[in-house]
From TrEMBL:
SUPFAM superfamilies: NAD(P)-binding Rossmann-fold domains (SSF51735). Belongs to the short-chain dehydrogenases/reductases (SDR) family. This is Uncharacterized protein. GO terms for molecular function: carbonyl reductase (NADPH) activity. It comes from Arctia plantaginis (Wood tiger moth). Keywords: NADP, Oxidoreductase. Transmembrane segments: none annotated.
Length: 274
């Protein structure tokens, strides 16, 4: 019998690390801790091994297509496919409520554009009952956007990936145009909000596509709570361990029929577009 495979992107620390820990404890299969920095990734693996857990490690930089291809080649060579994929990798500069265009582009490339690379290269390796969990945020709710045209577009049942890309690129143009244009689009931390709203919208589009293709794959997004991590400078309401609760529920316990949902940190479903 082939060993099942779970992997978590950006998982050498924070919520990702705790999700890997929970998967190692409860998932019946191989669990990959991934990180773009090999040294930090191996340090994280060592911490889990000291707890008696046995994660596997592979370098994975989600912003580098070659890195994603190398990881896909490794999975193809050693496993039958991917059963659980947690898209956790993300960045936020908590000190900059309004980023420069260059910083905004870097954030969006990491938090959103990388998902399109993963879609192209890793999704073909998904098993027919795979579970995808996208780590979003309460800033990934549609109400964070201030442009009516995008509120109307993104809520459509037939919204497309191209329309989501247009939304992201229009924000980046606003960032180029200066602070007032940036703020009018999505307020402070607009780049992070746009990246997570785009992630949420992409989740629903991809679930529709999987269903149309006759696949039993589930893809959901989740707000893990305001978590005390390095990214938030230690501020937050919950520990990373608590933040892993809802993602682990989606990976391990949720019914396979739960598809295309936005889950809150306490595991209840919320309306994305309220």
């Amino acid at each position: 019998m082939e060993t099942k495979v779970a992997l978590v992107t950006g998982s050498n620390r924070g919520i990702g690390f705790e999700i890997v820990k929970g998967l190692c404890q409860k998932f019946d299969g191989a669990v990959y801790l991934t990180a773009r920095n090999e040294e930090r990734g191996l340090e994280a693996v060592k911490k889990l091994e000291e707890l008696g857990l046995k994660p596997l490690f592979h370098v994975l930089d989600v912003t580098c297509e070659k890195s994603v291809q190398d990881f896909a080649a490794h999975i193809s060579a050693h496993h039958a496919g991917i059963d659980v994929l947690v898209n956790n990798a993300g960045v936020l500069d908590f000190d900059k409520s309004v980023s420069s265009y260059e910083d905004a582009k870097k954030l969006i490339d990491t938090n959103f554009m990388s998902l399109l690379t993963i879609t192209k290269i890793l999704y073909p390796l998904l098993t027919n009952t795979a579970r995808i969990i996208n780590i979003s945020s309460d800033w990934g709710l549609l109400s964070n956007i201030r442009k009516q045209v995008w509120l109307d577009t993104l809520v459509k049942e037939d919204v497309t990936v191209d329309e989501i890309l247009h939304f992201v690129n229009e924000f980046l143009q606003a960032a180029k145009n200066g602070k007032s244009s940036y703020i009018s689009f999505a307020g402070h931390y607009g780049d992070y909000k746009v990246s997570k709203v785009a992630m949420s919208a992409l989740t629903f589009v991809q679930q529709r596509e999987f269903t149309e293709q006759g696949k039993d794959i589930s893809i959901n997004c989740v707000h893990p709570g305001f978590i005390m991590t390095d990214m938030t400078k230690g501020m937050g309401d919950f520990t990373p361990e608590r933040g892993a609760k809802a993602p682990l529920y989606l990976a391990l316990e949720a019914p396979q029929s739960l598809k295309g949902a936005f889950l809150w940190h306490d595991c209840h479903r919320v309306n994305w577009d309220d």
